[in-house]
Amino acid sequence: MADTPRLEVDHITCRFDGREVVRDVSFAVRPGEILCLLGPSGCGKSTSLRVIAGIERQSSGLVRADGAPLSDARMHLPPEARGVGLIFQDFALFPHLTVGQNVAFGLRGPRAAMAARVAELLERVDLGGYADKSPHMLSGGEQQRVALARALAPRPRIMLMDEPFSGLDNRLRDGIRDETLQLLKDEGTAVVLVTHEPEEAMRMADQIALMRDGKIVQKGAPYNIYNAPCDKAAAAFFSDINVILGTVQGALVDTPFGQFLAPGHADGTDVEIVFRPQHVKIDFDRGGRGPNPTPQDGTPARGVVERARFMGHESLVEFRMDFDGGILKATVPAVFLPKPGTPLWLTVRRDRCFVFAKKR
Ligand SMILES: Nc1ncnc2c1ncn2[C@@H]1O[C@H](COP(=O)(O)OP(=O)(O)OP(=O)(O)O)[C@@H](O)[C@H]1O
């Protein structure tokens, strides 16, 4: 049935020595869909992947593929019986086999069909003429592509990838990521990709599951998680953030940038207003008057440039704000390097601000 997820992970919990390192994790992945488990080191991403692979056994919960259990309280299929492909960071090609033999390793059946599948995949990863070469003759990026072809050769219905691109230099990485993505989509494989890099998750994922302390704290399309983070830490995982403090009165918070809506927060709640540097607008001093307030941007507040750096695709400017002496950051998608000490005025895109109750 088209609507049956290829992979279902249902309330998985995993304990080591009584400590829960994966806590009640659930998600589903459809054919051709890529779900990224994203989170800081030690949050339980790899353990979740190993449970799906069958290398680790969960303490509770179940894993299903195409509606049939791979493991639950009663049974546990071994990794090789799951129809699951694996690619880890330290993927190792068999050094004594040629590239073609490496790709053919997991294949069974008539020789001609195997040879055709190997040739097709090597062509797809742009290594058409490489079948007879030895792995040590290949660059890191080429070896990575052979590993991908090898994992895909038996047409696994599910592919599990643990930081598969982290060993590659930046120049190679983007191209290989995009090629890999296309290949997995074309093959209709359901993919779970583990990464601690938000950029990688944004680039690759149809869904991101953001993990912290063993739990999924937020799950959704990349733009949803980026534009509607569930809390301050989720916002901060994707970019630098600015934070200003306030207290709710009548569903509003008064700040030096004007009033912000705080629906759902009771009067007297201390809140943090969180916004990304790219949602700060910079305006000129105009002899100390600054720009006029507008309904969209609210009230401008004055700051003095602390420092400005050009980052390649944008300039990052740090301001010491008059209202509290704190630092706020703004980015500009151009070369903009005002001198330290320059007074400028900032406004904040109110539709891009998040209001969270301050944690005590
Ligand atoms: N076999 C094990 N026995 C005991 N503890 C383990 C075992 N495997 C993982 N852990 C612990 O579980 C926690 C989660 O580890 P896991 O490797 O899943 O995290 P991760 O999010 O993938 O981190 P990283 O990005 O650093 O690989 C860590 O504290 C780790 O030390």
From TrEMBL:
Keywords: ATP-binding, Cell membrane, Ion transport, Iron, Iron transport, Membrane, Nucleotide-binding, Transport. InterPro entries: AAA+_ATPase (IPR003593), ABC_SmlMolc_Importer (IPR050093), ABC_transporter-like_ATP-bd (IPR003439), ABC_transporter-like_CS (IPR017871), ABC_transpr_FbpC (IPR015853), Mo/tungstate-bd_C_term_dom (IPR008995), P-loop_NTPase (IPR027417), Transp-assoc_OB_typ2 (IPR013611). GO terms for molecular function: ABC-type ferric iron transporter activity; ATP binding; ATP hydrolysis activity. It comes from the Bacteria. GO terms for cellular component: ATP-binding cassette (ABC) transporter complex. SMART domains: AAA. One of its GO terms (biological process) is quaternary ammonium group transport. Residues 7-238 form the ABC transporter domain. Pfam families: ABC_tran, TOBE_2. The keyword Ion transport applies. PROSITE patterns: ABC_TRANSPORTER_1, ABC_TRANSPORTER_2. This is Iron(III) transport system ATP-binding protein.
